[in-house]
Amino acid sequence: MPPYAVAGSARSLLWGLLYPYMEQQALYDTLQEPYSYLGGFVTINDWWNSKLDTNHRKAFGSFSGYQCPTRRSGYYANEFATNNNDINDRMDAAGPQGDYAFVCSNRTGNWWYFENDASGTLTTTLNCISGARGPFRPAFYTLAGTAGQQLTWTPRDTFAWCSDGLSNQFFIGEKHIPLGRLGQCPNNVYASSNAVRTRTMGECSYLRGYASRTTSAARTLASYEAFTATGLTANIIGEYPICRPSDYESDTEPPAGPYHSAYRALGFGSWHPGICNFLLGDVAVRGVAVTTTTKILRVYSFVDDGEVVSLP
User: Fold this and answer.
1) In sequence order, what are the beta bridge partners of 152?
2) Count of CB atoms situated within 10 Å of the CB of 167
3) Which residues have C-beta within 8 Å of that of residue 54, sequence separation ≥ 6?
4) What pLDDT, on the 0 to 100 scale, is given for residue 112?
5) Cα gap 118→120, rounded to integer Å
6) What 3-state DSSP class applies to 102?
7) Is the pLDDT of residue 59 over 80?
8) Where are the beta strands (DSSP E) in the chain?
9) Secondary structure letter of residue 172 according to DSSP
10) Angle between helices 54-61 and 25-32 (to 10 degrees)
């Protein structure tokens, strides 16, 4: 199984690791270039802003494999990140923008916090390994010891991790981007009470993760709002969880409440009428109705719940 991340918040997520399998070896090689003592796979703002030239940035932002032709074609990237210090709480993730997200489900805590330290042990607040219930987990890795060396990594899981069976597991889906927000990334410090920032923070670089940035690369099907210790076993919203193109596009909507929370913009959803496409573990692609219930979607987002349901 490909890991969702190589090593920590500064490194490439799953989307960069898949480049060689999509005839993009040159992009993958660019990610591997040693970056000082960090040893490659670095995707921080300074790497995008200062270490790549115009042709490199154009190649990343123009890769059509991560673009849905219903939404976009050509060059799409966040070029305007001003924070080279790369504070984790910020949403200004410079890099290419795309239309797909891998499925993330977590048994404990906030689903969008992805990281473990260099030793492979859990940090005190991030339970992305032991608490994971989605198909992807981080790699085993060893950081480079000296400048110019590459870090090394290996996948954590085989397909056996999906114990419910690959045909019963969503891997990747189309991510919701509200109408009028294509290509927008707020480039601000995250503020949960700011609906404008929240509704657009899923359109930053798909190569970056950790905290609010993870929404550009991953989404959850269990609940879009339960980002607390309640976990993801219940949905606190009484409506269907797959978004329609026009859902939650207006900043004049109330920033909280059962039907208008800005967090609802961070779900799965497409601009195709009535459906959202998902890739299952057996490589089948299914158009899933936006009216599919949370119970069914939750079963398809957990690798080990033992439940069997059929998609409508």
Assistant:
1) 142
2) 11
3) none
4) 67
5) 5
6) strand
7) yes
8) 77-78, 95-96, 100-103, 140-142, 152-154, 170-174, 218-219, 275-280, 285-289
9) E
10) 130
In the numeric block, the tokens 């969008």 are attached to 112
CA distance linking residue 197 with residue 91, whole number of Å? 9
- Rounded to the nearest 5 percent, the helix, strand and coil shares of the chain are 25, 15, 65
Q: Can you tell me the distance from the alpha carbon of 301 to that of 290, in angstroms, rounded to the nearest whole number? A: 16
pTM of the entire structure?
0.89
Per-residue confidence (pLDDT) for residue 227, from 0 to 100: 43
* Of the candidates 291, 197, 216, the residue with the CA atom closest to the CA atom of residue 66: 216
**In the structure encoding, which two tokens stand for residue 214, read together?**
């993870």
Closest CA relative to residue 11, chosen from 132, 129, 152, 181: 152
Q: How many residues does the chain have?
A: 312
At 34 the pLDDT is 74
**pLDDT tens for each residue of 69-81:** 999 999 999 988 8
Give the residues across from 141 on adjacent strands: 153
Contact between 96 and 52 (Cβ < 8 Å): no
**What's the longest Cα–Cα distance across the chain?**
54
Helices (H) and strands (E) in the chain, counts: 6, 9
Beta strands in 117-212 (DSSP E): 140-142, 152-154, 170-174
Integer Cα distance of 258 and 250 in angstroms: 16
- CA quadruple 65, 97, 133, 256: dihedral positive or negative? negative
Contact 42, 175 (CB under 8 A): no
Is the pLDDT at 125 greater than 70? The verdict is: no
Measured from the Cβ of residue 150, the count of other Cβ atoms closer than 10 Å reads: 15
Reference 42, options 9, 80, 20, 3; nearest CA is 9
Buried b (16+ CB within 10 A) or exposed e, 270-288: bbbeebbbbbbbeeeeeeb
